[in-house]
Predict the structure.
Amino acid sequence: MQKYRESFAVSELGRIHAQLPLKELAEKIRMHFPKTHPQGNTPMFPPEGEVALMFLKPYTGQSDDGLIEMLNGSIHMQMFCGVLIDPANPIKNGKIVSAIRQRIAEVLDIRELQKLLYDKWGGSLKDKDLCLTDATCYESHLRFPTDVKLLWECCEWLQSLLKKTCKILKERLPRNKYRDIDRARLTYAKHRKHSRAATAKLRCRLLSLLSKQIGQWNRICKIHTVDIALTSEQSKRLDALKEVYRQQSALAQKKEVKHRIVSIDRPYIRPIVRGKENKRVEFGAKVNNIQIDGISFIEHHSFEAFNEGVRLQECIEYQQELTGVKVAKVGADTIYANNDNRRYCTENGITTCFVRKGPKPKNEDADISTARRIIGTLRSTAMEGSFGNQKQHYGVGRIAARNSRSETLLLFFGIHMANAATLAARQLAAEEKEKLRQKRRA
């Protein structure tokens, strides 16, 4: 065991483990838990082990079952989580990860936990007076939504609910055009290209079918009020389905629709217009991040679209709250360069990378011009690079979750696992540099 501990300490997982204040995070989270466990049984993982397991998921990029399988076979992962699993009696229930995630997600406070993380990392961070900020969309794992797909999913689910309910109640299934429209929808789906006329026709037929199904369901509920009992998941999906019908009817009449639903499975997701060449619209959480010496912190996140350009002052104030150091330099995209932000930065003596408005003054200081260029380069390389690193390697590129709380938790732990890995790599590079220096001296 001593050899295993020594090998774990010098491994990548061991170095990341040393960068995480797991005990402090677990204590902060446990403050919001009930005093007794709901089932009264002994938990398999210690409190800091549960938090470590949430960090381990984005590190491995595995599903819940895959994570448990890797945990059973890796002594280093078990040490990371503070458990030792008997090889003759491995964990077989992959739902343990989901249960822990749901429990932590209900009490997750991003600001409180980020304060603890900064307290651990702050001593090794430089340039605390430089604030880099930008927003990005961390996409959800979702098929690309179209009106036809969305309406058909509503019709299909409601038809299955009608069929199941009528079978339980021993009632005759109400008649509608479901089979005819199913054949028309399949024919439409097989075509490589869809004309506007064909799309509009099928959309109109789907709206008509959904309207009839909703009416049939309401009549059954009126007759058998006492006998029908829906689960909370079915009730939420039924409410989302009715809202989809209302929104799609308004869109068919060329009306403006706000808070548009794109999935009845996850009705909290909204289309986020990004304006990129290859991906004009994204679907997921929009997050405004700040970055201190290459380490990212969440300043604001929402599943609704928001204008990040008005949040520059909040970013500066949040970084000063975290670090206790007055911000003197700001790097941000052109969307942040509005008059209010320019005025705020000028009044507080903050140097920005914003392009100057009006003609260039003849006696402009060369140092200020150079500083602006350097800050702008840092923002476009370090900040954008961190987004790509998080999305490609730490599980926040296409987040697979069933509700908004779980998606927020996966987003939080994915971003900060990337931060811990960055700090661990820096520590390793510093140690290698020191060894090389001592070797040269010898």
